Amino acid sequence: MSPATQHRFHLRHFKAISLAMSQYEDLYMLLNHFVEGMCMTFKIKGASVLLHDEHEGQLFRVASYGISTAYLDKGPLFIDKKDEAFIEGRPVFINDMHNDPRVKYGDAARSEGITAMLSFPIKCRSAVVGLVRCYHSVPIVLHEEDVDSIAVLCQLLGLVIENNGLKHFVSHVRTAMASLPLRLREGTD
């Protein structure tokens, strides 16, 4: 975060993105627009959103931009102690994915032309529910305020994901309730 690093995420951008995120009806469209916007704003090769499946203990990619299918299909992404962004809930920069022991698929990154990765935790309240990963062919250098802005947007993203899950849950409960016999819905038996 050198003083010469250009600040790219200004307050007007932050406000516009925050407002848009709170109003999206289609979660998958939001996630895809989010990663595309990250790539365009910071002029990086690619980005992806990965959500944690507690039952499987791994991350599943739900949105990506700028990354090939071959790289996306490289193998499972299990959570382990080396994944600091997920375990510690803080942004993590990796500037040499080919030789960093925290990176499981360094050869796949090399084939994709990716050298650096920046991971941001997606939090819902205090729980990490996923990651936003940014990829580039050279080390990623961001202004400190941009890192803070992205971290806050990832928190908002976590709340949007939780809200979306709750809406689906309520919808399923309503459907189940509607299929009950009338006597059970009214509480008479």
CATH superfamily: GAF domain
Portion of residues within helices: 40-55%
If strands are numbered along the chain, what order do they take across the biggest sheet?
Answer: 3-2-1-6-5-4
Number of domains: 1
Distinct helical segment count: 7
Q: Strand count, sense and closure of the main sheet?
A: 6 strands, antiparallel
Strand tally = 6
Counting helices, strands and paired strands, the structural category is: alpha+beta
- The SSE string, one letter per element, is HHEEHEHEHEEHH
Inertia-based shape: globular
- CATH fold-level assignment: Beta-Lactamase
Cα(first) to Cα(last) distance is 68 Å
| SS strand fraction | 15-25%
- What is the class in the CATH system? Alpha Beta
CATH-level-2 architecture: 2-Layer Sandwich
Q: Cα-atom Rg, whole angstroms?
A: 19 Å
User: Average pLDDT, to the nearest integer?
Assistant: 85
**Which stretches of 5+ consecutive residues score pLDDT under 50?**
none
Short précis:
The protein has helices at about 10-25, 25-40, 70, 85-90, 105-110, 145-180, 180-185, and strands at about 45-55, 60-65, 75-80, 90-95, 115-125, 125-135. It is α+β, with helices and mostly antiparallel strands.
Descriptive report:
With 189 residues, this protein is α+β, with helices and mostly antiparallel strands. It has one domain (11-184): GAF domain (Beta-Lactamase), CATH 3.30.450. Helix content is 44%, strand content 21%. The chain contains seven helices and six strands; from the N terminus they run H-H-E-E-H-E-H-E-H-E-E-H-H. It has helices at 11-23, 27-42, 69-72, 84-88, 106-112, 144-178, 182-185; strands at 46-53, 58-65, 77-78, 92-94, 116-124, 127-136. Strands 3-2-1-6-5-4 form a six-stranded antiparallel sheet. Helix 1 packs parallel to helix 6. It is globular and about 70 Å long. The termini are far apart. The mean pLDDT is 85.
